[in-house]
Each structure stands twice: as structure tokens, then as C-alpha cells.
Amino acid sequence: MFVYIRDVIKPDVLFWTGDNSPHVIWKNTEEEVVSATFNISMMIQEVFRPGLSDVTIIPINGNHDIFPAND
Fold it and tell me: Strand 13-16 and strand 56-59: pairing?
């Protein structure tokens, strides 16, 4: 998906709007929330790293990117 965005859509700016973890906040653990954000961070970094892309990435934390959610 990110490669398609980079190579076909070719944006100047990517707004990463967060809410990375599943939206079952009554079941999520802190480890799941951290892992989801870390994994997506690594995917974005791999595809949009310098030399492959000059896209500006602006991360915006969602209310599900903290634990417990909505705090």
C-alpha cells in the first residue's frame, strides 16, 4: 500500500493520522498499542526513507495511540 502511494500517487506530504491499534479498547494491552505504532512506523520509514522519497511525513497521534485509550 505505501509503495503504491509513493510511486503512483506521489504526494508531497503524507499526514499519518494515527489510531494504529485495533479499536477494541476494552481488550487492548499496552504492548499491542506500542507494537502497532512501532510496526507501522517501520513500514512508513522503509518506504519513505531518504533516497527513495522526499515526502514530508506529519504524524498525528490518535486517541487509540496511547494506553489506556482516550486518557
Answer: parallel
